[in-house]
Amino acid sequence: MIPMMIKSIRRRPLAAYITLRSKTTATQYVESRARDAVFEKFMDKYKNLLKVIAIQDLILSNPTRTPPSVSLDFLNRLSQKLHLNRGAASFLRRYPHIFHIYYETTVSQPFVRLTDAATQICFEEAEAITATLPAVVDRLVRLLCMSKSKSLPLRAIFKVWKELGLPDDFEDSVISQNPHIFSLHDAHEPHTHILKLVDEFPLCHLRPAVDDWRVTATECGKKKCEAHDTAEMQYCFKHQYPPGMRLSKNFRAKVKEWQSLPYMGPYEELREMKPSKVGMRRLEKRAVAIAHEFLSLTVEKTVEVEKISHFRKWFEIELNMRDLFLDHPGIFYLSTKGKRHTVFLREAYERGRLINPNPVYNVRRKLLDLVVMGRHQFPCNN
Q1: What is the spatial distance between Cα 108 and Cα 128, in angstroms, rounded to a whole number?
Q2: How many CB atoms lie within 10 A of CB 161?
Q3: What residue stretches are annotated with the PORR domain (predicted)?
Q4: Alpha helices, DSSP H only, in the chain?
Q5: Cα(91)–Cα(168) distance, integer angstroms
Q6: Which of 62, 260, 283, 352 is the most buried (most CB within 10 A)?
Q7: What is the pTM of this model?
C-alpha cells in the first residue's frame, strides 16, 4: 500500500497539491461555493423521492401482510431517522398517488400500503432490472476490478445496490447464479463476507467510461478539456461549470495543467511512486478517475458521498472524498440538500435529466413524477 507515500499524504493536506480553491474547511467551502441552480432545483424533488423510496422499501419488506403494509405507528417511530420533520402521517398525505392510509379494524390502528400506481412502478423496475442482468453482472465485475485484490466487502455493495441497479435478491440471482465469475468468502470481521472475482475468470481489458468521451471529442474536434494534441487528450476529463461561475486565469491555468497530467486509470494496478508533489497529484487524479468510473456505473450517475466513502480503502484512495468532489467542480456537483451530501456526474446530466437514460432510470423517473405531482390531480373523495 505504499506506506511512505501514504504517510506523506497524511502529513500534507490536499490543498498543498491542488490549490484550486481557497484554504478553507470543506464545510465553509460548501456554504460559499458557486451553486448550480439546475442541480439544486432537481435536488428539491429528489430529496423527497429518497424519503419516499425509504418508506416504500419498508412497506415491501413486510411479507407478513397482503398486500404489503406497515402500521402508521411504526413509521412515526422512525420519523426522525427518515427525516420526516412533521411526522409520518403529514408526509404520507402529501403523496396520495403513492401511499394509501387505511384503518385496519382487526388491530384497531391505521396502516399504510402502496397505491396501485406505485405498486406497478415497483413491478416495472423489477422487470427492467431482470431484463438487464448481463449489464448488472458487468457493473459488478467492473466494481470489483477497481479493487487491487479484485474483491470488496459485501456490506459495502449492499450500501449501493439500488444505485448499481442490482436486484433485491442479487446474492441469489447474480452472485450464486454466476459461480464462474463471483465467489463469497468469510471476512476477518464478524457478520460480513468478501465478494471476489474467481481466479479463473478472464480479465479482459476494461475500458473506462471517460475513454468513450475522449474518442468522441477527438473525432468531433470538440476538445473541451483544452488539450492541444492527442497525447494530452488521453488524460483529459470533460469539464462544465455552473452558469455564472467566474473562472480566473489562475484557475484555468491550474485546470489545464491538471488535465495534461498522466495518471493510472481505474482498472490499472496501482504502482509505487516516489513521494513527490507530482506523484501525489497523479494519485489525486487517479482518485478522480475512480470516482468518475464509479458514478458512471450507477443507474442515475449519482450517489451519496457517505456510501462511496465505504470503498476508499479497497480502491486505495487516501483522500477525503468530499474534498475531492469540491476540488473538481467541473467534473462533479456536490449538493447538500436533504441532510445528506449527494454527488452527481456533471457530464451525464442536462437540465436535470440523464442525457443517455437507461430502462431502470426511466422507470424510476415515473416514481419521481408522482412525487412532483404531490396532491395534484387526485380526487378529493379518495
Answers
A1: 38
A2: 15
A3: 35-375
A4: 3-11, 26-32, 37-60, 72-77, 88-93, 116-131, 133-145, 154-159, 170, 209-220, 230-233, 249-259, 277-297, 305-308, 321-326, 359-373
A5: 26
A6: 283
A7: 0.86
Cell matching residue 68: 404489503
- Tens digit of each residue's pLDDT, the chain (382 residues): 334 333 333 333 433 333 444 444 554 555 456 788 899 999 999 999 999 999 999 999 987 888 899 999 999 999 999 989 888 999 999 999 999 999 988 888 999 999 999 999 999 999 999 999 999 999 999 999 999 899 999 999 999 999 999 999 999 999 999 999 999 998 777 778 999 999 877 766 789 999 888 887 776 665 444 444 565 678 899 999 887 788 888 988 988 899 999 888 999 887 776 677 887 888 999 999 999 999 999 999 999 999 999 999 999 998 999 999 999 999 999 998 878 899 999 999 998 999 999 999 999 999 999 999 988 876 654 4
Give residue for cell 492541444. 228
Structural Rg of the chain based on CA atoms = 23
Q: Grid coordinates standing for 194? A: 468478501
- Residue 183: DSSP 8-state: E
> Hey, what's the cell of 247?
473562472
What is the number of alpha carbons within 13 Å of residue 56 lying toward its C-beta?
24
Q: Contact 21/317 with Cβ under 8 angstroms?
A: no
DSSP state of 34: P
